[in-house]
Design goal:
With 146 residues, this protein is an all-alpha fold. The chain has helices at residues 7-24, 32-51, 56-67, 75-86, 96-111, 125-144. The longest helix has 20 residues, at 32-51.
């Protein structure tokens, strides 16, 4: 078997990743190099799993593991959720996604102080990050408005 034997699988992984990125990592959804590399890596893992005799569910799970590695925690989703939860009276819900994108560079210094990982949201440090980001957003809104 070779790569051309799996064109539907390549499209599946690419479209699946792209939909996920648009939802949770919009800044990466335009990075074709990243998308291509992740898609090809997932397909390589998928092909190897098929060759090793894994069942269809296992092959997809193994491929998805590499496809979404280090993408489960989303800075964008975190900011969007803070806007929805903590600034509901100041920011209309429909404006939160665009504002979250705008806030990403403003909040990078805060994110840099934490060991972000796929399971970071389940760590005790997540609450500290959430609180610090809430303060950063409040200061930003006071300084620049909405």
């Amino acid at each position: 078997m070779n790569r051309k034997d799996y064109p539907a699988d390549m499209s599946y992984f690419r479209l699946s990743l792209l939909a996920f990125l648009r939802e949770s990592h919009p800044h990466l959804a335009v990075n074709e190099k990243f998308i291509k590399a992740r898609t090809e890596t997932a397909l390589d893992v998928y092909e190897q799993a098929v060759k090793n005799g894994s069942n269809p569910i296992e092959t997809i799970e193994q491929a998805n593991e590499v496809l979404y590695r280090n993408l489960h925690f989303s800075k964008y989703d975190t900011l969007k959720n803070i806007l929805w939860n903590e600034f509901v009276n100041e920011i209309p819900e429909e404006n939160a996604p665009a504002l979250a994108i705008k806030l990403l560079p403003e909040c990078e210094a805060v994110f840099a102080d934490y060991p972000l990982s796929d399971d970071f949201v389940y760590s005790p440090e997540y609450d500290l990050l959430y609180t610090e980001l809430t303060g950063t957003i409040a200061i930003y809104l006071e300084s620049y408005g909405i």
